Amino acid sequence: AEQYNNVRIFFSHKLMACDFLSGEAIFYNKHGEEVRTKVDLIVGADGAYSRVRKQMMKLNRFDYQQQYIPHGYMELNIPPGKDGQFAMEVNYLHIWPRHEYMLIALPNVDKSYTTTLFMPFEKFESITSEQQLLGMFQREFPDSLPLLGQKQLVETFFSSTPQAMVSVKCHPYHVKGQAVLLGDAAHAMVPFYGQGMNCGLEDCIVLNEILDKYGDDFEKALPEYTQLRHPDAVAICELAMYNYIEMRSKVTTRSFWLRKQLDNFLYWLFPSTWVPLYTMVSFTRIPYHQCVLHRKWQDRMLTLGLGTAAAATGVALVATWYTLGHQGHIFSNLQLPVSLTTTMSQVQQWLHI
């Protein structure tokens, strides 16, 4: 930004207050001196603990919600292997899901892995000795221990503090034509979908498109920005919270992997119609809330398809036995799930058996 002649950057200035009606912002510099400045538009891109948002909360009809999850996180490190290369397969997200906690590893350009441990704060606090820490890793993450290194793990764990994770929702994102919130200031989210920065950058794209549409008329553009972005921001915040459960627990279930394989097969079969949720969210410009709606449609289609398949199977079974002359015996020796038994009973009545 500093390459543009009309951009001036001031470091070590802390925002204390802003008057949205007059367009005045009040800062304190590093010497403790008050600095007042007049602006046309105040853009709050100042993070999850936004000072601009705090000022907006003093206005009427401004909704705000924040939620801390009970888990904290701590960053560890897997260095490159002895050959200077990645210590694990590089083109994967590595997850050690353990229901109440998990370990994940993401590759870096220097061939190391940023490895993050997510656990309830109570679990972090209960580990007070080297023996407890190594015992937990040997029990829960045994294959990660040689990669992390016992000495490095102990040093990092006991010299670090687990950090909190917060989800923030608010509405609206603007004050008339005077101020607007972008990024985490508008919609901080837990990190489990990897969309925090992407969502913030998309805010910029959407706002820029709307400003172009209205010829930089803030009074018209900012309300439309709130109208468009709020449903998407709420959707991705909720998706991130859901993934918090999915990554540490649901990925260990058969139903998760069956659904994943089914989604991938249908995506291969109908690439323009059946797009998996993660693909929609991460690799397209489909608005987040529409991704959620499309996923719900997919769920309904699968439920309908399975129900239809069960009914068709029931009809086929009954028709076969009826044709073979075993009308009275099909249900006497065949044990069926309750839902399928109900379907069979309805089919019996329909066929007058």
Number of DSSP-assigned strands: 12
Top-tier CATH class of the largest domain = Alpha Beta
What fold name stands as the CATH topology of the largest domain?
FAD/NAD(P)-binding domain
Strand percentage: 15-25%
For the largest beta sheet, what order do the strands appear in spatially?
6-9-8-7
Secondary structure category: alpha+beta
Name the descriptors.
single chain; 4-stranded antiparallel β-sheet; 3-stranded antiparallel β-sheet; 12 helices; disordered C terminus; transmembrane; FAD binding; FAD; FAD-bd; FAD-binding domain-containing protein
Give a verbal description of the structure.
Its cofactor is FAD. InterPro entries: FAD-bd, FAD/NAD-bd_sf. This is FAD-binding domain-containing protein. The chain crosses the membrane at residues 265-283, 304-324. Helix content is 46%, strand content 18%. The chain is α+β, with helices and mostly antiparallel strands and 353 residues long. It has three domains: 14-67 and 165-248, FAD/NAD(P)-binding domain (3-Layer(bba) Sandwich), CATH 3.50.50; 71-159, no CATH class; 253-353, no CATH class. Strands 6-9-8-7 form a four-stranded antiparallel beta sheet. Strands 1-2-3 form a three-stranded antiparallel beta sheet. Strand 1 (14-19) and strand 2 (24-28) form a beta hairpin. The longest helix is centred in the last third of the chain and has 36 residues, at 288-323.
